[in-house]
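In the present case, backbone shapes were mapped to integers, as reproduced here:
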Amino acid sequence: MTFSIIGTGNIAWFFGARLVTGRHNCRGVYSRNVEAAQKMAETLLSDKFGPISEIKDGEADVCFLAVADNAINEVAAKLNFKNTILVHTAGSVSIVAISKAAKDQAILWPVYSILKNNMPSHRNIPCGWEANTDKAKKYVLSMAHAITDNLFEAKFEQRKWLHLSAVMSNNFVTHLLAIGERICSENQLPYSTLQPIIEQTFERLRNFSPQTLQTGPAMRNDTTTINDQIILLTEHPYWKQVYEAITASIQQGNKK
């Protein structure tokens, strides 16, 4: 099967590379940044690239709209596909966002953090899909099998909640770790000292529910330690708010 891609970000690179490896042929890469589109097209063994305005209906079986969530509506408004299936890759955006851009629409959303300079080599990448026609379903699933072995159908309401869970479980956790790194740096402490307990936490999560693993002063209702640590964060008001909010959430959870 053939595909084209709109976008040159992390997801676009990942999908493109996996699809080409899976023997799907890239017919073009399109982006506001034509130079980036050219570089990506060359990598995907395609000789066609350019601005979004140059994309043509029917030049590929499927077009992947792999742009930022808040750009999907704007880009979709420039498209009018009668033959090409349009697939967007966002978890928090409804399929309705591309309903006027193509007759056949689908979504393929990886529940995974993808970075261009650190692409996953394995195939256990959960991907939620949705399609509005049998044709769209057939094509998106066929191409999805080149990307992952872990596929599940997920309507918009489900994807919204799963996306929220992913933000809390990944993005928020990464931010908390970054705060920990900053605290160590500001106090001339080696962040590597925390590496064993961080690894222990994630290793335990392989076999136990996070709720059963909660420890610390909030869990023990150790108000003395909590108050002392809040004082330590006085010069970092945003971190202090985070500490207080999460502490309150843990304590509230203990009452249930």
